[in-house]
Amino acid sequence: MQTKEINGYTHIRYEGQTFPKEEMLTRSREFYEFMDKRRSVREISSKPVDEQIIENIIQTASTAPSGAHKQPWTFCAISSSSIKSQIREAAEKEEYDSYHGRMSDRWLKDLEPIGTDWHKPFLEKAPWLIVVFKKVYEVADGDKANNYYVNESVGIACGMLISAIHHAGLVTLTHTPSPMNFLSKILERPANERPFLLLPVGHPEVPTYVPDLERKSLNDVSVFFK
Ligand code: IYR
Question: How would you label 19-30 residue by residue, b for 16+ Cβ within 10 Å and e otherwise?
Answer without folding.
Answer: eeeeeeeeeeee
